[in-house]
## 1
Amino acid sequence: NAGVTQTPKFRILKIGQSMTLQCTQDMNHNYMYWYRQDPGMGLKLIYYSVGAGITDKGEVPNGYNVSRSTTEDFPLRLELAAPSQTSVYFCASLRFLHVSSGNTIYFGEGSWLTVV
Amino acid sequence: SQELEQSPQSLIVQEGKNLTINCTSSKTLYGLYWYKQKYGEGLIFLMMLQKGGEEKSHEKITAKLDEKKQQSSLHITASQPSHAGIYLCGAVHNAGGTSYGKLTFGQGTILTVHP
């Protein structure tokens, strides 16, 4: 199984450019998430989705947008890239049934983004 | 102050030694995840704890959640170079189902194991 797949792995953007980070999962997971990880810091939640057509903001949503048109895909859009968005981005997914059902959260391998 | 604090921030041990990493929360933990990350790679799921007093083990790694559900520890027995990496704890701080996955992470513990 592929699990959670992110593309691209590395990208350099110029200030003001736009791009989309792709995330797809093949585990039929209902919940999906985008996190960012800055050097020496833990991960912070950008956006999340509990199902197709449903998205919501996390802790640090400014400068980003998401959509969830299918169960499998959860792309993250950067509209006007800024140096503060230089970070490592992780997509994650979870098959949530109920609070006692194990709830393992799977992460992708990350996307390294540099804005110059 | 941080909602979730890990200690120590870094740890250097000799191969074969035991070690413990702590994760302390300022709020009740409804779930606590432990992940391992190698530099430049993604997060590898280790264990997830939910119940006060719960303990889980996998190979030489044991994680515990205290009775009050505000602290977790990760213990590695007889460490090996393969254990080296960054260990992250992630907390579920609300009871609702949609809270799962919306993790608050600690800043990570960098573990180095010398052969």
## 2
Amino acid sequence: NAGVMQNPRHLVRRRGQEARLRCSPMKGHSHVYWYRQLPEEGLKFMVYLQKENIIDESGMPKERFSAEFPKEGPSILRIQQVVRGDSAAYFCASSPLFIQGGRNTEAFFGQGTRLTVV
Amino acid sequence: RKEVEQDPGPFNVPEGATVAFNCTYSNSASQSFFWYRQDCRKEPKLLMSVYSSGNEDGRFTAQLNRASQYISLLIRDSKLSDSATYLCVVSKGSQGNLIFGKGTKLSVKP
């Protein structure tokens, strides 16, 4: 059972280009979370998705960022017109169901995509 | 008040020392609590879940005080391999997404 797979591991984009980050959750997991980690900072929640649904996008910047988790295929985090401030590590995590009261369900993380905007 | 706050650190301790990490959270509706560990430039990995009754896993002990909205992690007999950043993680109310503290860096020296 492969873990959470993210690709690419490293991505370099020029300012103004688009960045597409992919995340394939663990087999059997239907919940995906995206986090951003700036250098020397903690992980910031961005968005929480289930198949074909965005559950919580309260951490997503209002412009240029979007995420999807289609019925088939990986979850995609898309950043349009990238700027230098978007340079960060983007981590995806998956879990099999709600992390809910009385049952602490682990979220498994991918190795991350390190985006560098030049 | 930040959603999850941790000791700023860093903690520099000798091998064999006991070290304690503290964490407070602001959302009283939070239901699930964890400690994750993150090595430099790697992904976070679950260290242990935290239960109301407190729980222990070898050298690691986690405690939760819901009334004070406080979580702790105790590492006994620290090893060089314990050097990492320790992240306090709390669920956002009854929903699934996890809120991470900024982390506390631990360096264990020989």
